[in-house]
Amino acid sequence: MLQLFESKQAGVEGLREVAAEFEKRRSTWLALHDFQAKVDAWQLEAPATWDHPAVRIAVEGAAAGAHRACKAQKGDLVALRLLDAVKAFRDTVPLR
Amino acid sequence: MHAAFKEQLSRHVKSARHLFARSEGVVDLFQLLTDNGRKPDYKQAAAVDTLRDAVEVLRAAVTQASDQVTEQMPRQLEGLATAIGEVNSALQDTLARIHSGPLADPASDPGRMVQLVQEIGDRLEVSRWGMEARGGATQRLTCTC
Question: 3-state SS string over A59-75?
Answer without folding.
Answer: HHHHHHHHHHHHHHCCC
